[in-house]
Write a structure and sequence with these properties.
Layout lengths: L2 E5 L3 H13 L3 E5 L2 H11 L3 E5 L1 E2 L2 E2 H11 L5 E5 L4 H9 L4 E4 L4 H17 L23 H13 L6 E4 L6 H12 L5 E5 L5 H9 E2 L11 E2 L1 H4 L4 E5 L6 H13 L1 E2 L8 E2 L3 E6 L3 H6 L5 H7 L2 E4 L9 H17 L5 E2 L1 H9 L5 H15 L4 E2 L7 H4 L13 H15 L4 H8 L3 H10 L1
Parallel strand pairs: 1-2, 1-3, 3-6, 6-7, 8-15, 8-16, 9-12, 12-15, 17-18
Antiparallel strand pairs: 4-5, 10-11, 13-14
Helix pairs in contact: 4-6, 6-7, 13-15, 17-18, 18-19
Length: about 450
C-alpha cells in the first residue's frame, strides 16, 4: 500500500503529511475540495483516503457516505477538528475506517497506516457493510480523551448490527449513558427499557421481565405486560447483570438462545424482538469461576465488550465534564453558577474520584447549591469519599505484584485498542518499555 489521497482544505496540514509520508516511501496526492478529490479517486485508485468533514464545496459526511458506497474497498480515515459526539458516531456509521481528531501528531497517522496494512493482509476481500443512516443522539457522552473517542467509534460500528454487547466499568462511569447512545444509534424512536438486575427482589424480577397472567400467583389479579414485551423492537438494558439470581440466569439464557419467552403462568410463546444490552461493574469471569454466574450465559452476554474507563484514567476530560455539569446543574437548580476558578479546577483534578463521573456530578451539585457567588470557588468543593475514606474497587487485582501489573497493562492496552503510543502515555512509561513488558508477559 503506497497511494494515499488527502482531501482537506488545510493546505499546510496536507503539505506536512505529504512530506512526512513521502519520506517514508508513500506516494501522496492532495485535494482541497470534494470536486478536486473525486477525479483522483476514480482515476488514480488510492489505497487509503484521509478525509476532512468540513470542505468548501461539500459536507464531508455526505461525501464519506457516497465514497463508502461506491468504493467499499478503500479505507477512509476521517480527520476533523469537530469534537462533538454525533460527528464521530455518524462518521463510523457511514463507513469510516477510523476517526482522528485534530490536532494530531505524526504517530497517529503512522499507527493508522500500520493498522490498515495489518488488517488488509488478513482479509483483503472483506466487503464493507452498507452504512446506516445518521441519527441524532440526545444522550451526550462528554470527553475528548482517546478512551472516549474509542467508545464512540465502537458505538458507531456496533450500531450496524444487533450483536450482544457487554458494557463494563466501575460504578458511576456512565455505562447506562453508553447503552442509551448505542440504542439511539441503533433504534431511534423505539423504547429503551432499563432493568437493574440487583435492585429488584428476585421473586418479583421474573414478573418484571416476562410479565404474568391473571391468577399466576397470589395477588396477580390481572394480566401484566413485562418489560421484555414492552420494549418491542427497541432495547432492553440489563444493568448489573452480574447480580442476577442463578434461576433467572437459566431463563435469560433460554431467552437469548431462542428469542422467545412466556409470561409467568402463561403457555403462549411471545417473540422477543428487542436488542439486549448488558452492563456490570463486576468481573464476570471471576463470578463464572466461583459458580455465581453461568459460563454458558457469560458467552452469550459478552459477544463483544465496551469498557468504560474510570474518570481517573480519562486525562483531560475532567474540566470538560466540570463545565458541562455546571451548565446542567445550574439549569436544574435554577441557580446562575456557570463558572469555576482555576484553584477549584485544580482541587478537582487532584481528587482520585472513586465514584467516577457520578461522584463528580454529585460533588458539583452540592457545591452549586451552597455557592454564594456566580463563580464556584475551591472552598465550595468537598469530597464525601475522603470523609468516609472510600477508595476505588480493586476487584480482580489479587495475586502477585507481577500478575497485577500484567492485568493492568492488558486492561489499558484493550482500553486503548492496542495503540502502543497512547497506552504508554497513559501508563507514563516509554513505548520501548511497554513493548518489553508485552514480550515479558
Amino acid at each position: 500500500m503506497n497511494r494515499l489521497l488527502i482531501i482537506d482544505d488545510d493546505h499546510g496540514l496536507c503539505r506536512s503529511i505529504q512530506l512526512l509520508l513521502g519520506a517514508a516511501g508513500y506516494t501522496v496526492k492532495t485535494a482541497g475540495t470534494a470536486a478536486a478529490g473525486w477525479p483522483l479517486i476514480e482515476t488514480w485508485d488510492p489505497e487509503i483516503v484521509f478525509l476532512d468533514l468540513v470542505l468548501p464545496d461539500a459536507d464531508g459526511l455526505h461525501l464519506l457516505k457516497e465514497l463508502s458506497a461506491r468504493f467499499p474497498s478503500i479505507p477512509v480515515v476521517v480527520i476533523s477538528g469537530r469534537s462533538d459526539m454525533t460527528a464521530t458516531i455518524s462518521a463510523m456509521q457511514r463507513g469510516a475506517y477510523d476517526y482522528i481528531r485534530k490536532p494530531f501528531d505524526s504517530d497517529d497517522i503512522q499507527l493508522t497506516l500500520e493498522k490498515v496494512q495489518r488488517e488488509q493482509k488478513k482479509a483483503q476481500d472483506i466487503s464493507v457493510a452498507p452504512p446506516r443512516p445518521a441519527t441524532t443522539l440526545p444522550h451526550e457522552i462528554i470527553g475528548s480523551d482517546p478512551h472516549v473517542l474509542d467508545i464512540l467509534k465502537q458505538i458507531g460500528r456496533l450500531s450496524t448490527s444487533r450483536v450482544n454487547v457487554l458494557i463494563t466499568g466501575e460504578s458511576g462511569t456512565g455505562k447506562e449513558l453508553v447503552a442509551r447512545a448505542l440504542h439511539e444509534a441503533t433504534a431511534p424512536g423505539k423504547p429503551f427499557v432499563a432493568i437493574h438486575c440487583g435492585a429488584i427482589v428476585p421473586t418479583l424480577l421474573e414478573s418484571e421481565l416476562f410479565g404474568h397472567e391473571k391468577g399466576a400467583f397470589t395477588g396477580a389479579d390481572r394480566q401484566k405486560i413485562g418489560k421484555l414485551e414492552r420494549a418491542g423492537e427497541g432495547t432492553v438494558f440489563f444493568d448489573e447483570i452480574g447480580d442476577m439470581e442463578m434461576d433467572l440466569q437459566v431463563k435469560l439464557l433460554r431467552l437469548l438462545q431462542e428469542n422467545v419467552f412466556e409470561r409467568v403462568g402463561g403457555v403462549e410463546p411471545i417473540r422477543f424482538k428487542a436488542r439486549p444490552l448488558f452492563a456490570t461493574h463486576r468481573n464476570l469471569g471471576e463470578r463464572v469461576q466461583t459458580g455465581t454466574f453461568r459460563e454458558d450465559l457469560f458467552y452469550r452476554v459478552a459477544v463483544t465488550e465496551i469498557h468504560v474507563p474510570p474518570l481517573r484514567e480519562r486525562h483531560g476530560d475532567l474540566r470538560l465534564l466540570a463545565y458541562h455539569f455546571l451548565r446542567t446543574i445550574g439549569d436544574r437548580l435554577k441557580k446562575a453558577v456557570y463558572d469555576i476558578t482555576e484553584d477549584a479546577l485544580i482541587k478537582l483534578e487532584q481528587h482520585r474520584w472513586p465514584g467516577n463521573v457520578r461522584e463528580l456530578e454529585n460533588v458539583l451539585t452540592r457545591a452549586v447549591a451552597l455557592a454564594q457567588s456566580p463563580t464556584l470557588l475551591a472552598e465550595n468543593i468537598e469530597f464525601p469519599t475522603e470523609k468516609y475514606n472510600l477508595v476505588p474497587s480493586q476487584a480482580g487485582t489479587t495475586g502477585s505484584l507481577a500478575m497485577a501489573e500484567k492485568l493492568h497493562i492488558e486492561h489499558m492496552l484493550k482500553a486503548q485498542s492496542w495503540n502502543l503510543t497512547h497506552t504508554a502515555r497513559v501508563l507514563e512509561i516509554s513505548p520501548t518499555t511497554l513493548r518489553k513488558k508485552i514480550k515479558d508477559y
